[in-house]
Structure formats: structure tokens, C-alpha cells
Design a protein that fits this description.
The protein is α/β, with parallel strands linked by helices and about 290 residues long. The chain contains 13 helices and ten strands. It catalyses: holo-[ACP] + malonyl-CoA = malonyl-[ACP] + CoA.
Amino acid sequence: MHAYVFPGQGAQFVGMGKDLYDNVPLAKELFEKANEILGFPITDIMFAGTDEQLKQTKVTQPAIFLHSVILAKSLGADFKPEMTAGHSLGEFSALVAAGALSFEDGLSLVSKRAMAMQKACEQNPSTMAAIIGLPDATVEEICSAIDGVVVPANYNCPGQLVISGSNEAIDAACAKLTEAGAKRALKLNVGGAFHSPLMEPARVELEAAIKAAPFAEPVCPIYQNVDAKPYTDPAKIQANLIAQLTSPVRWTQIVQNMIADGATQFTELGPGSVLQGLIKKVDRAAVCESKQTL
């Protein structure tokens, strides 16, 4: 079975999607439509902006979504997903690519999500840190013993777990995790504590928009971040998407479940090849490829 996966924030690079815009009429049309929906020329920043401009959450999230989804649509009849998944923001790309949401509604939700997360970050100064080389259970245990908010946020692959929380609690957790034998406890250059209780204001803000958007049954199961299980029921997909902002991304478990359910080939669509690397760390035998253009 062919699984398609879609990257999240951090995969962006200047020049992303330009090849599609220049060579695929449908892609050009969708990029221009995106500029209208967003109310600013995001293609200018994606194709020829600076890293700083592209790093703004309100730009980054729609940019990655657009590159991923427009690439999937540009594949036309060659895009035949039998299962899909996306890492954090990438879940929205997976939903649109699989037909659970329209391009316009997906982009609108991603833009609202980015703005809501930006606002939540400004309300609560906070951060994330990558913990390398410890079992998940050890990281969970140490986080739960720290005063303040610090929680596992991204289960990326065995031995790589990203934690999320207030600045002080992250510092305290990093010190304890290093003492416990972590190879690295590296603070990340992110806007705030994504996938933690500190995103609750963003979850509340986004909930109404997700509930108002028309969801359809996708063409194949979507393995969702909150519990790593496959879904096709629109109401359940919506509920899981609302919970996603304050819940951890269970990427390790998603890959394990996809393989257990028959995935024989993984194709990553969009910028970068981060997910391809993570899938290989979950299962060295997995057949993976990354596509950034046709």
C-alpha cells in the first residue's frame, strides 16, 4: 500500500514551490488563488523572500501547506493515496490531499491556525526542546516531576522526543534529562510551546473555525496525530483536529501503525525530507522517497 506523508513547520526553504509555479498551469492557478485568499503575496516570500520573512508563523504554515497540497494536486491521476498522514501542520495538507477538506477551506484554516498560535505564543513566552537518546518513558517521567508546564510534544522516532512548555520548566527539564543520560537536550528556535496546554487559547479560537468548515469523507484513511489511528469519519476527523493543538504529535506510532496496516511505500510531499529520515529511524527497511516537485 502506498502512504503519502506531509511535513510540518521547520521544513520551509526560500524557493519552495517555484518550480511548480513556473511549469504547471494548475499549480500557478492555485498559488495565485492562495495569494487572494490570504490577502498578501505569499508566493513572493516563498520564491524570493528572506529566511526571516519565511520564518514568521503566519507565513511558514500556509507556505508549507501550499507547497505540499499543490504538489499533490499537480500529480493528477498519479496521486493515488491508500493512506495519508501529516506531522502537526502537515495533517491539514493530508486532509486536503485526501479530499476531506477543499483547498480553499484548508488554506483558510491553516492561516487561522497560524495566527491563533502566534497570538498564544505572545501571551505565554514559551519554547520547545529536542531530547535525543532517551527512552520515551524516561522523558515522560522526568517532565511530569518538573514544576510548571512541560510535556512531551512530538514523538518523532525512537530516541527522539521533543518537549514543550514554559521557558523555566523547559530549562529545568533539559538539566534533569541531561543528568539522566540524554545525548542532547537542545532548545529549538520556535515561536512557542506548540502541542502543549499553553496552546489552549489557540485551540479555543480554532475550534469554532474547524466546526464551521465542511468536512467530507476522505478517499483513504488519515492517520491522525492525537492517537495515531486511521480515520475516515468526518466528525471524528474534526474532533481530532481540534484536540491536535494541545496534544502531542504521535509520529513514531503513526509510522508503526501504517506499516502494521500494510504500508509498503512512503512518499513525502512538500519541502525538505525530514519525515523520510524519521520513517527510516522507525523502520530501517521502510521504502521511502521525498518529492519537492514533479
